[in-house]
Amino acid sequence: MKPLQLEDEHGRPQAIRISERVHWIGALDPNLRTFDIILKTANGTSYNAYILRGSDGVAIIDTVKEGFAADFFARLESVADYAEIKVIVLNHLEPDHTGALPELIKRAPQAQLFISQKAQSMLKGLLKKEELSFRPVLTGDSVSLGDRTLQFLHTPYLHWPDTQCTYSPEEAVLFSGDVFGCHFCDNRLFNDQVGDFRFSFEYYYAHIMRPFKEYVLRALELIEPLALQLIAPSHGPVLRDRPQHYIQRYRQLSTPALHSELSLNQKTLLIFYISSYGNTKRMAEAIYQGAIQIEDVRVSLYDLEGGEVSPFVDLIEEADGMILGTPTINGDAVKPIWDLLSSLTVVNLKNKLGGVFGSYGWTGEGVRLVEDRLRGLKLRVPIPGLRVKLIPTDDEIVECQAFGLELAQELMGLRAARSVDMADLP
Ligand code: FEO
């Protein structure tokens, strides 16, 4: 497929029509290789912005990153005058979508800003202006442009707390912000014309949306009933061919798979360990033996040395609890444990049950450090970590079994509340 004419015969950027009254007025950034420090982009990205024309004025939906403002304004000017702008919608305030906003406000001071309820403090932080006129909106709110309307959908955390989607029912276009987007740059613009971007779509979901699956599912409840001609995201291809396909894919990716494997009341507890001389392994096996005493707890025991991190992250995402075993070497937990923990930022761990154990030779700081990390990741760690000096004795093995049993009881809500005597704490 040939590239679209993103510039006119004089080389000036021009808008691209994507539906009867909607034009793309965004910018391409083919040279970007890393986005937001962590995301790789093999061929760059796009900052998609749109303009909707109604009989009573026009609306701008999102802007672009600051360095690309010239393209944005040139494309805007190719289809509208600034005096016509009645509405500016900001679906998301991250700077890649608001970089041109201060200048746009200067050029169209009459326009009313529409942002989500949760974006209000962010907008003040972004523009650093005391006097700001904007309208916070929620699902059910809308704004009229005469014969065209924009309806707002409250879709927080996709990708920041402020994010929302905006829908034009007359155009059957969803301006989805980061949702359904990807970092993929292609001047053919439409999903049925560009190169194969499936990997980029999945990668983007995995890094941006995956930690917020519950919020994705809530957003889909709002999006799925919409009549759609196309989805206009803020990055990557405009999804005009089978837009429902991408909605279905989001539902698949966000729906827990483990539910179908478990009986009604079952909960899952994962035990991961790494062991230098077999001592932490012995502890792990004893903890496992203790945990499996509790009915309806599906316990799994894994040696980190024998597995890749990525599938373990998948398991942890859907598990109810996780116990980690680490030796202490040079005053720290060992690298495979930290590698696993650092990979968990892509999943939601809030309120999962956590526990830590390990054998040590000298000082045993590793267990405490991992405990702190689990709490930092918002797991519940109700029982202090269990440490054994070198080889566990028979009594210490019994202690490990009790540790596993107690954590499994906690998982099922069967553990008796204990009062902690502060004098007993080390
Ligand atoms: Fe594309 Fe979250 O900004």
From TrEMBL:
Domain of life: Bacteria
Limits of the Flavodoxin-like domain: 269-408
SUPFAM superfamilies from the UniProt entry: Flavoproteins, Metallo-hydrolase/oxidoreductase
UniProt keyword annotations, A-Z: Flavoprotein, FMN
Pfam families, sorted: Flavodoxin_1, ODP
SMART domains in alphabetical order: Lactamase_B (SM00849)
Protein name: FprA family A-type flavoprotein
Organism name: Methylomonas paludis
